[in-house]
Amino acid sequence: MKNLHEIDVYPRLSLPVRSARACELILENGHSVLDLYGGHCVNTLGAGDRGLERVLARQWRKLSFATNLLAHEARAEFLAALAPTLPELPAGERWGVFCSNSGAEANENALKLALDATQRDVVVTFTGAFHGRTAGAAAVTDGKKAFPRAPFEVRRVPFGDAEAARAAIDARVAAVILEPIQSLAGVVDPPAGFLAVLRAACDAAGAALVFDEVQTGSGRLGSFWAAQHFGVLPDVLTTAKGAAGGLPIGLTLARERCTRHAKHGTLGSTFGGGPLVLAAAAEVARRIAAPGFLANVRAASAALVNAAQRGPVVAVRGAGLLLGLVLEEGLSAAAVRDALLERGVLVGTSNDPRVLRLSPPLTLLPGQAERLGRALEGLSAGVSR
Q1: Residue partners of 190: CB distance under 8 A and separation at least 6
Q2: What is the pLDDT of residues 122-159, one digit of tens each?
Q3: CB 112 within 8 A of CB 99
Q4: Is the four-CA dihedral 286, 21, 183, 357 of positive or negative sign?
Q5: How many other CB atoms are there within 10 angstroms of residue 342's CB atom?
Q6: Alpha carbon of residue 135 to chain centroid
Q7: Cα-based angle 213, 9, 26 (whole degrees, multiple of 5)
Q8: Domains assigned to the chain
Q9: How many CA atoms does the CB half-sphere of 174 hold within 13 Å?
Q10: Digit-coded pLDDT (tens) for 85-136
Q11: Are 136 and 102 in contact (CB under 8 A)?
């Protein structure tokens, strides 16, 4: 295909993957690599999950696709499966959901709802944030300048600075958007009480609090949502990544105070909410909510944290199966990643050059964590600084 090439925007690893099963990548030479990255939090149930395969095959035969103008059983089953997982609302309130195809779309729709509901034009965001690459999402992402101008006024505050946040959230602010744990920034945890401060400041100013749970949702932290993990209720939350176990999905969930102005045409999507993807998302929600599933996430997390206390790692950040391994001063996370890959373990990097990211399938078994520990041992001396 001399007349076609792929635009070179991905720094791909030299890893000839032939197939995958659960948390293992199978290479062309037959060797296996432990996948502790999970496709950027996407492979929630692991690769090639048999239960998800059966659901998809059944839905494909029954109704593979339908316009959003039609009601169908897969949508009803999805709503029934997701509803019990959601953060509890005050009596008389309920969540509304809109389905799209990605985290960026989910965040765009969250901001659109907040701007529409408040009739305001300012959004507060934070240093280190990543919310996507589309116009509105890029505007609230730190360091992204992919478009000539932002579609609304943005106020950027240092992540974790409660006083600066209080000062920024005033009567012009429509929304405050943040990742409860900043993943790409290096798995940065919020200081104790910070999310509660934002909740109180939004209440005082009449602004919407938006949690971007594209990575922290769907059981990733050992609870279904970061809102439950931290005990702080947002007005809007978004998710994507692993919510359909490997199929493209974006979900925007909003309290009725943020949907009351929505009407036909406010939001829309051709592919979002299609029956095949919603059947997958329903299966993922049911599996995560099943007895013992989240307990395994927490146990696997504890095993990984324990295994990581070796070699060049000086601290571990994050929660559940979204972990950041902070390396010794002067060590390159990219170099350590490459060295671990040579030892049969795949991990990710981040925007912090000293932090590795772990986001494996939520089906990782605690016993598999020891492979990370063995791979880390003795790395400091052999890795470039």
Answers
A1: 159, 160, 180, 181, 230
A2: 999 999 999 999 999 999 999 866 688 889 999 999 99
A3: no
A4: positive
A5: 11
A6: 19
A7: 75
A8: 17-42+291-382 (3.90.1150.10), 53-289 (3.40.640.10)
A9: 18
A10: 999 999 999 999 999 999 999 999 999 999 999 999 999 999 999 999 999 9
A11: no
Residue 59 burial by Cβ neighbours in a 10 Å radius (0-12, 13-18, 19+): buried
**Share above pLDDT 90 across residues of the chain, in percent, rounded to a whole number:** 92
Q: Which amino acid is at 99?
A: C
**CA separation for the pair 272, 68 (Å, rounded):** 8
What is the reported pTM? 0.96
Tokens linked to 122: 């300012």
Question: What is the pLDDT confidence band of residue 382, given thresholds at 50, 70 and 90?
Answer: low
Instruction: Please give the Cα distance from 189 to 309 (Å, whole number).
Output: 19
Token pair 């401060």: residue: 197
Q: Is the dihedral of CA 193, 198, 202, 204 positive or negative?
A: positive
Check if the beta carbon of residue 255 is closer than 8 Å to that of residue 89. yes
Residue found under tokens 């998800």: 52
DSSP string covering 240-305, please? -GGGGBTB--EEEEEEGGGTTT--TTSS--SSTT-HHHHHHHHHHHHHHHSTTHHHHHHHHHHHHH
Edge-to-edge strand ranges of the sheet holding 24-27? 17-21, 24-27, 32-35, 345-346
